[in-house]
Specification:
259 residues, alpha+beta, Beta-Lactamase, Enolase-like, domain 1, five-stranded antiparallel β-sheet, three-stranded antiparallel β-sheet, elongated
């Protein structure tokens, strides 16, 4: 319980608000890595299945519009759209109101599928804005599939493990921590859809670089969307402790995100 209390108190000390979700995931990876003394990885939830609540258009200039997108459970995304012609604030407010009324309660991936057939409802200028907005949904989804929002913590803590007194092992773990594509691959393949723990040890891992390591992963929920969390470290790790830590941390993320 000491480890769990440490994680909770450190996250509380960070005083992360609802609109600072990205800070929550980054801070969690650092704290979990320090407490576990392993590499800790936290990915942002994939919002493609997130339930749309509302959006707001903020005019930045004659050809730039800031979109503030609110997803159920307090997830907020911002996008800057570059438009071909000037649109007044009044028209942008009307457009936002229409969009919110039409799509409130739908998942973002549903909006992407439904919208092309409804573009004729908008005037030419307005349809251009909506088109760019829908394209930005696609970009968000593509970025998430590539793991653009994944946070790795604990590099300075895992190297204190006895295995990494060996210079070669030290080099290997540093390279692993910096190999973003490999970390993304691990998290795309080592997480079960039902939030259960998944443990792969040594040769059970697909990648040769992981033959000397174990990976323990699970997922967490923020409303309708899921993110992933896990640890990577020596095969002799205390698995019962890591499972307990990940269960607790996953639940804690759920609670903080729900505020």
């Amino acid at each position: 319980m000491l480890d769990e209390r440490s994680i909770k108190s450190r996250l509380e000390e960070a005083n992360i608000t609802v609109v600072e979700k990205e800070n929550l995931y980054a801070e969690t990876s650092k704290i979990l890595g320090k407490v576990a003394r392993l590499l800790a990885v936290v990915s942002e939830p994939n919002i493609s299945k997130g339930i749309f609540q509302k959006l707001e258009f903020v005019k930045l200039s004659s050809n730039k519009i800031l979109v503030v997108l609110n997803i159920l459970s307090g997830i907020i995304k911002t996008v800057i759209l570059e438009v071909d012609s000037d649109i007044s604030k009044q028209k942008l407010d009307t457009l936002a109101s229409t969009f919110n009324e039409r799509y409130h309660g739908l998942a973002l991936n549903q909006i992407r599928e439904l919208n092309p057939g409804k573009l004729h409802d908008y005037r030419q200028k307005e349809s251009g804005v909506i088109n760019k907005l829908i394209n930005s949904f696609d970009k968000m989804n593509a970025d998430e599939e590539k793991g653009s929002k994944i946070f790795v913590g604990g590099t300075g803590d895992v190297i204190l493990q006895p295995e990494f007194e060996n210079p070669r092992n030290f080099k290997d773990i540093i390279e692993l921590a910096e190999d973003r594509n490999l970390v993304i691959h691990i998290f795309q393949n080592n997480v079960k859809s039902d939030n259960d723990m998944m443990i792969t040890i040594g040769s059970e891992n697909d990648d040769e670089k992981l033959k000397n390591y174990s990976v323990v992963t699970t997922s967490y929920n923020v409303g309708e969307v899921k993110g992933n969390i896990g640890v990577i470290g020596p095969k002799r790790m205390n698995y019962a402790r890591m499972i307990s830590l990940l269960k607790f941390t996953s639940k804690l993320i759920n609670e903080i995100s729900g505020h």
